[in-house]
Amino acid sequence: MRRRKHGLAYLLVMLLVVTILGGCGSGNNEGTTVEPDSSSSSVTPSQEATTNPEDEKPVELVFWNYPVWNLPDQKPGEYAQTLIEKFEKKYPNVKVKLEIIPYDGGDQKVNVALASNTAPDILNDSPGRTTSYAKRGYTVPLNDLLTEEQLKKIPQNVLEKVTLQDGTIFSYPQGLGATLMVINKSLVERAGAADVLPSGELRTWTIEQFEKLLVAVREYQKKETPDHYPFLMFGLNEQGDALYHSFMAGFGGKRYTDDRTQSTFSSTENVQAVEWFKSLIDKQLVYPNPETRAAGMSNDYFVQEKTAVAFGGFSLLNAVQKAKDEGAIKGEFEAILAPFPSVKEDQGVVIGGGGQFVIFDNGDENKIKYAKKFIQFAQTEDPDFIKAMNAFDVYGRDTLGANPDPEKLWLSKLVTDTEHIIAIDGSYDIEGYSQTRAVFFPEMQAVFIGAKEPLQAMQDYDEKANKIIKDAIASKK
Amino acid sequence: MNKSNLIVVMLKLLLVIAAVLFLFPFYWMISSSFKEMSIAFQIPPQFYPHHPTLNNYIKLLDTNAAKWFLNSVFVSASTTLAVVFITSMAAYSLAKINFRAGKFIFSIFVGSMTIPGAALLIPQFKIAIELNLINTYLGLIVPAIAAPYMIFLLRQFMKTVPQEVLESAKMDGCSEMGIYYRIMLPLSTPGLAAIAIFTFVQSWNDYIWQLLIIKNTEMMTLPLGVATLIDAEAVDWGLIMAGSVVTSLPVVIIFISFQKYFVQGLTVGAVKG
Amino acid sequence: MLKREFNLLYKERYGFLFVAPALLFFALFYLYPILDAIKVSFYKYTYYSSGWAGIGNYQSLLQDDVFLRSVKNTLLIVIMFVPATLIISFILSIFISLFRTRLQSVFKAVFYIPAVTSIVSITFMWQYLLNYDFGLLNFLLGLFDIDKVNFLSYDRAIVTTTVVVLTISLGGPIVILSAALGGIPVSYYEAAELDGASFWRKHIRITLPMMKPTILFVAVTSTIGAFQLFAIILLFTAGGPNYATTTILLLLYQEAFVNGDYGRANAMAVILSIIIVIIAWLQFKFLRTDIEY
Predict the structure, then answer these.
(1) Cβ–Cβ contacts within 10 Å for residue A34, how many?
(2) The domain B66-262 belongs to what CATH superfamily?
(3) Predicted ipTM?
(4) Which residue range is the domain that position A193 belongs to?
(5) Which residues of B touch A112 (CB under 8 A)?
(6) Where is this protein chiefly located (chain B) (predicted)?
(7) pLDDT single digits (tens) A30-48
(8) Contact call for B231 and A68, based on CB within 8 A
(9) Residue A353 host element (H or E)
């Protein structure tokens, strides 16, 4: 048997799914139409922009970036080079070496580099992965880069994502985004369920409404396309667990205690959410056997008009558009965004996100200083950068240009509404978080296959998660 | 048609069905590379592209793909050459030369295969750093040279070479080097061909190690380069498939061209003379 | 005494000389890393600290339900996979040899192609076949009025996965066994035919024994491979549902690269390695190849 060393594109599907679904909140893949405009709000950096003559000795920085960032006329990833050129012009004594890392295995590459002391100076990635690097003490705190003024402007859920429990800001707040639900409006209308679509300025809806929509669409599908179902739940692996977290928030449940040391997945509201999910399976309103479905399948089925609602955001809208352009979709397919439903009519849930740059501590004071200047430059001194990020701006600066896409415009308003929209608890800061994720989805699978009752599964989960958290806290010095 | 003939026919039929099963993913990979993105991953799939397009390949050409291809060829070919030489020498020693440490060394080689590569990744990487192999082609070639799997395989092949052949050569005054070069190697051609193919494939597809070692885009190997084309925005399966096709084709070609070394009966006449 | 020793070593010098280059590279890239990995297995790595743990990792693993479950799953896969590989590839390589040389090459290429096909394509094809809603297999079953089957269910997942892995890993053994077949002098068969041996007789009496070394190789390496299955399982079932297909490697990868606990991960590697070594040793004993021809 020939020996396959470490798999080929084995992470392709998984990692791509994470980024497509914005798995727990990265915002940098929301495509925006970008036109040059004059920034209306000013964001003052907290460091001087002038260089001191004594810092003229040459500095070389290594910058790892995934293939992202582009202005409309560029290829994905091309803007990174543009940014570097601009920065080097301003600081001629600094050379920044750009290395592109692929999504497939990129995380592993960073981990090995950290373990062998060959990490880059700057990395651009999302919280979740970067949180775990920060927790292990590899990153440089960035608190000194933000003024009081800035901190006030940044949305709370973004700040939470980039801050550790002790208040250290480990990642630079930028690139606001959201993951929510996408609805095939045309299909719902054909099914005669237009009345239960989310309504109002913020398009909020109740869980009851959501279920009514599923029922109506299913009735329609039974006649037209009996093999189809309105919604695809997934549970193959830990990608996409945010789907369940979002509905738990919709039911009003909190997943952790305020002191962040205990998991409360077995609270009444959370268990209600899980029971409700199980009921969807029993009522045959979703594709059977969710425990065998990968999160990516949800996107594919939605684009192929095999479901009416899906978990997603801008990437999914773009995928639908592309399919239309390529002629894969015949007939009407109007896709709209909507927050996750909740128990209250005027309340919605989204998965927020933001945060990108981290600086690794390689022991060189000078490099750290200039690395900080670099990320500061990108976010506050380069007007094109926030557009190249293809996400919303945490300070509310305009990234959409003169002719904004109406859905994008709507989303930009949604993500800044704090009264009616709940952004779910990102929970990356919880000690031992990534291990708890690995324990969560088997419990959900047990519920799906009927091996455990929802309450039992969540209690078992809490027990395991609490142990993980406790051990992780104990190992902190 | 008697019974055994019928069985043979049925089995040949089964063989054909199995062949279809094995070929389909490859066929699908090729046909998808000619499909536009959104169509490529439909279930049920389009068995042949209804609207074939060369777009994906054009996109590929717009990148560094040609250079990546050449890099891969260079690395894999060099690795294969090095491995064939060094492991054939080691295999000969362990198969045919009687020395006491031989058995021990052999068991160490085999034993080392039992530790999963994932556990060795970081220490191997650290050694590569020490030897200054980071971001070099050598960094891809050198660590692959001691290949216990290949040594094990060749040694087993060489064990079937009859001892008398070697004995008579020695009696004719052949040196050890001569035996190795003039007798062992020619007799082991099927084995060497197998090693060559496996090494080439393994080196070509060794994605994780390439990912760790190479930093510059121009030096990337083909699998690595293609991976960097995938951005977060939307999965361009058509492009990925095109990349996969280009990545797999050379290997298939190598495989087919090495087939002639597998011809049965190569050793005819070696014993009786 | 010492002089005699040196004399002997001098006589054996060619053994060392021929194996030396390989040994050098091996020491650098295998020996040292293995020793390092074993050393690390006695440490505890968490997000915040790393420290000596003695046999702590081992103790914790042997009491961990999930780990023990993964050992059981892995053993199950091995028991299904290895004999199947041996038998099928042996029979297939013999039958391939019945065809003309040209066709032989074609068949061998066909069986080997999955090894060079993108794993994404392979996964896709199987998802197409096995997809519960729209897949080909369930579609065919439907034609015969049979209920749809969930191939990745809790009970079936491990068998389904093993079958899939078989289809992509038969190529190597077939190539190897075919090569070994090519090394058997045709004269042996001719002699047997003169004695009136039947088709099966010929192969059992001649082919089987002459291919023992190679069969041993396939047995050992497919065992090692089966024990170390990771990539395809990750893509197919991610170890589920509910740990039904979690293998040791899956846990190891999670532990090393997600949780960052290299110590625990390496302890798993060592335990795995010990299990494989024991089995491999038994295989060597059973398929002794000291007989010369």
Answers:
(1) 19
(2) MetI-like (1.10.3720.10)
(3) 0.85
(4) 179-351
(5) 121-122, 125, 212
(6) membrane
(7) 333 322 333 334 444 444 4
(8) yes
(9) strand A348-353
